[in-house]
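User: Could you go from structure to sequence for me? I need the amino acid at each position, not a summary. Structure tokens:
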């Protein structure tokens, strides 16, 4: 049983109950729109995402909180409160059962740094009460948890406002190469920090990459594990071009992992998300360099 010692109230409009969060919760983003739409997932992603589009007054809030044990510790008390207030849980899932990577990039998520979603550890819930919908998304980054709540209420009368925290806590810094295996074991993901790309480039030309060697060693020691290599870009250029570049970055890393380090091809899939998942701001050269990256994400240990 989860028994937080200190609590705070998260006030939501009209249809929703006042949700109780740990007292250490810190708001990173609040948005209220008098009339908008929100895509609500009603099932896991397989070849497509089952969903409905809810319309009405939309209120979204993002909170950052020291994580107690896991993402279920964040979600369960909120789910229980919704059910006690008469909300019907329509759909709930965790990570792979949701559809993993594909699910995450089909749903509506507040961009980083206000909200972080670890592709190896997130949970989602959709609930309905009369004509109103509520969705919850929880995840973590290091020892911090993130909670996104979205309420769509056709009957609410609200004014449009947007408020972002002035200085959200940054994500953990890229780990040293020697810590790659430790990061994978602890969080299910790790940045391949020595795979450096110039803006628009997908080339990997160095003779050796310690991060790929460490990843290969980890995979060899854990033969049941499969991974996804996920490519990212900075925010220079258009969305479509950056999606293509990010996919090619991941594919370049996969080719080296298979051909140079002997990892079986069926254990490594690739994805590209363009500039949609930054880990820092894109308005400085240093930030753009940090965002141009490839990450390894554990997709299965069975």
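Assistant: Here is the amino acid at each position, in order:
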């Amino acid at each position: 049983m989860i028994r937080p010692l200190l609590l705070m109230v998260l006030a939501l409009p009209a249809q929703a109950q006042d949700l109780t969060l740990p007292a250490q919760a810190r708001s990173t983003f609040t948005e209220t729109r008098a009339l908008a739409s929100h895509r609500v997932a009603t099932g896991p992603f397989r070849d497509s995402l089952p969903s409905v589009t809810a319309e009405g007054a939309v209120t979204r809030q993002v909170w950052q909180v020291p994580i107690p044990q896991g993402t279920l510790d964040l979600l369960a008390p909120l789910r229980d409160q919704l059910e006690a207030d008469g909300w019907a849980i329509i759909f709930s899932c965790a990570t792979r059962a949701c559809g993993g990577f594909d699910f995450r990039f089909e749903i509506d998520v507040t961009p980083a740094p206000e909200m972080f979603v670890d592709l190896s550890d997130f949970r989602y819930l959709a609930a309905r009460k009369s004509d109103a919908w509520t969705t919850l998304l929880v995840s973590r980054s290091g020892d911090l948890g993130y909670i996104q709540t979205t309420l769509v209420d056709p009957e609410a009368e609200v004014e449009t406002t947007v408020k972002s925290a002035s200085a959200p806590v940054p994500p953990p810094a890229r780990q040293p190469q020697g810590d790659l295996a430790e990061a994978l074991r602890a969080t299910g993901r790790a940045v391949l920090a020595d795979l450096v790309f110039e803006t628009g480039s997908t080339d990997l030309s160095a003779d050796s990459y310690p991060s790929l060697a460490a990843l290969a060693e980890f995979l060899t020691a854990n033969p049941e594990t499969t991974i996804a290599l996920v490519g990212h870009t900075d925010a220079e250029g258009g969305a479509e071009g950056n999606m293509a570049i990010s996919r090619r970055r991941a594919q370049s890393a996969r080719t080296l992992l298979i051909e140079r380090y002997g990892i079986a091809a069926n254990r490594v899939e690739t994805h590209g998300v363009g500039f949609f998942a930054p880990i820092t701001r894109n308005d400085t050269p240093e930030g753009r360099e940090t965002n141009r990256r490839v990450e390894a994400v554990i997709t299965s240990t069975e």
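One structural detail worth keeping in mind: Confidence is low (pLDDT under 50) at residues 1-17.
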